[in-house]
Amino acid sequence: SAGMAMLPMNELRTLCEKSGFQRVRTYIQSGNVLLDSQLSEDALAKELEGALQR
Which of 47, 12, 49 is closest to 33 using CA atoms? Predict the structure, then answer.
């Protein structure tokens, strides 16, 4: 998307791990992340959005 900074996949994976998610893995360079979490879908989205904005 225009105006959005690119985040390397290893940094995205580290960001997710530091946010407390388990078994974090990324898929190619697409920005897709697979992870384990006990959070609801909405809570997970809010947590990831907050982490990306920090």
Answer: 12
Contact 19, 47 (CB under 8 A): yes
Q: Which residues of the chain have pLDDT under 50?
A: 1
> What is the reported pLDDT for 1?
47
Is 1 within the bounds of a domain?
no
Residue 34 lies in a domain: yes
What does the pLDDT read at residue 3? 59
Residue-range definition of the domain harbouring residue 16: 9-53
List % helix, strand, coil for the chain (3-state, nearest 5).
Answer: 45, 20, 35
C-alpha–C-alpha distance, residues 32 and 12, integer Å? 10
